[in-house]
Amino acid sequence: MKNERSERLNFTVTHDMAPSATIFAYYYNSESLEVASDSSEFVVVASSSIQKVQLTVGPQDTNHDYVIPGLRNKARVKVQATPNALVGLLAVDKNLLELAADHDLSTDYIALGLLRGSNQKTPNLAVSTFSLVEMFNSPYYPRKESRPAPRPASVLRSDFRDSFMFITKQANKYGNLSQLVLVPDSITTWAVTAFAVSSTSPLSLPKKPSELRVYQELYIDMDTPDSMIENETCVVNITLFNFRSQTTSNLTFRYSVQSTRDKSSDTKLPAMSSAKLQYFAFPLGPFKQGKVSVTTEVLDPSGIIIDKVQKQIHIFQPGYRVLKTSDVVTLSPATPMVEIPINNSAVPENIVPGSLRTALTVFGDVWAPVMMQLALPDLSKEFEGLIQVPTGCGEQTMAMLMPNVFLMRYLKRLEGGSLQANNRGKILRENLEKGFARMAGYRLKDGSYNAFGQRDRTSSTWLTAFVVRGMALASEFIGIDKGQMETSLRFLQSKQHSEGYFREEGSIFDRDLGGASGRSEVLTAFGYWHIWRSGVLNEASKKGCRHLESKFPDTTDTFALALTCYVFSRFGSVRTQECIHRLNGQVTKTSVGHRCWLDRNSPKIPGYQFTAKDIETTSYALLALSNSNYTGNLTPVVDWLLSQRNPYGGFVSTQDTVVALNALSELQAIASSQNLDLEIAGVKSGSKHRISSKSLSPKTFVVPLT
């Protein structure tokens, strides 16, 4: 082009330009006053993140370049990183990794994440992907390698995980880390990845994953289901791989099924030439509930086992578990003999044959029935139920987090200082730490919280109050940032109207959550209660209580009345007794003598006689009565709550479970007897048990069905 001129400019790329930078060039013609411009954006990746980690992995036995499975052989992983760096190691089956290659950490992936986090336009990035996908568990072509040494007859392969390691170790002062790891039994190739972080270096990665191969020349691949239903049958498919260099003859294939009806079979195999496959299949089932062990093996002519594979299959009963509490009775020395009839009308018509169990269980306090169904006292094993790692959105995370707090408080009263050292305390503390770390992702700059964090910039007054209270209670067991809590409290105070009520400007996605309704008296009571429980009682919180006192005469909703009464009882309001009187006027008495408070407008859930709002309302009523010097008998209220439990320790929904656990926890702290000492005798079972104040484990009598 005529009058065209080009210039070459050199500049130094610095850390300040990360994660991306834009070159802007312009031309200004002073005569015509014309301006021409253009720009180009490029990604900046810190040099310390490129090939900073040197990763090598190989078998401990240096005679081979692969690990022999079934011998509990180990691999050695070596890492070279920055001095004293924290190194993370992970091994994933390469077949799985190649199906989702872009899910693994890489420098491009990190750069892309930084760009997204900086809210900048994302430039084009070349993200490498794999072009070959192996849909089988090992190479099916022969390899020219040294043959493994003779194997002992006790070879057994039973560990078939898809990933392993999950190791976090600190490198030494030279940046070196060497780790021996036990390798699972799968015949496959493992992709081993690592990352390192330190105070002097950002996140560092190897250039690519290292590979570790698990291999043997002749092996079995057995395809079995993880679980089956009682009386089901299936077919087990077996593939025998032969990668030996010559034809193999006179082999014997054997399978055995260990259950209530043991079964086994031997099959003589025809000669197998090199790089050939042999297929087998045999029927499996039917079985009764329990576990079934399926074992297959291949033997040479002298009877030595070449390969042996064992897998476990869980056999479940059909249907789903249902717990029906026939009755709840409170025992005391004043009632030496109690007769509890078994209500057979509560048994469903479509019950699975042989699955009915009936038992009478005696507990030391009102919390113990819940403890039993939370899989306590042994929390060291895998368990399902109410106590679990908090996950989900902000609302779900808090609803799953709070039962951990209540249980920690209960166990501390029961076990004292030993809670901090035992396994129960460790698991629950980890759940609290993970839960509040997750909630940090739903925190906004003004100290408020919402269900989805930065994706939804609106603040939730209700959720923020919930988090503040959780922080205050959990600070007894884990480290809580007091500055963050004070910032959240200031946010709540900013959302309080001059007349004292709170307003909700954000969204509440779970409408079953207590206090989540749009009614100002409910939100005010809920917000005030949480602020008060956080240890703050200032003019703003007093103003909220005065607002509730002014609106109390117009309150007709039972749920709002119960929550308001609880706030009054804790604050010491002059209208507490008036509120309690109105609350008692709305109580419902059941046919078995229990007492509860019901929300007539809540829709019922199939399978439940009462609703989640009924559980919440009764729980707040119990809290109000137990904190107001109430002289009546609270046992019928407690018995009704305990009779509403589901098979997993909770109630109808997550939030009503949180409120019910809180009510039972506070009542146990107020009313528990330090001198409880009862001897319980089961007439039909003929057994005796002693229950004391420190009885955590329940005592159960098996009740005959005839």
CATH class of the largest domain: Mainly Alpha
The whole-angstrom Rg is 33 Å
Please give the alpha-carbon distance between the first and last residues: 104 Å
The counted number of beta strands is 23
Strand order of the largest sheet: 11-17-16-13-14
Number of helices: 14
Question: Taking all residues together, what is the mean pLDDT?
Answer: 76
Give the CA-based shape. Answer: flat
Domain count: 3
Outline of the structure:
With 706 residues, the protein is α+β, with helices and mostly antiparallel strands. It is built from 14 helices and 23 strands.
What's the arrangement of secondary structure elements?
Blueprint: E1 20-29, E2 34-43, E3 54-59, E4 74-80, E5 86-93, H1 94-99, H2 107-117, E6 163-170, E7 176-182, E8 189-197, E9 210-213, E10 218-223, E11 227-229, E12 234-242, E13 252-258, E14 263-268, E15 276-284, E16 290-299, E17 305-316, E18 359-362, H3 368-373, H4 394-415, H5 423-439, H6 461-474, H7 482-494, H8 520-533, H9 539-551, H10 558-571, H11 576-584, E19 588-589, E20 595-596, H12 612-626, H13 635-642, H14 654-671, E21 677-681, E22 688-692, E23 699-702
Helix pairs in contact: 4-5, 4-6, 4-14, 6-7, 6-8, 8-9, 8-10, 10-11, 10-12, 12-14
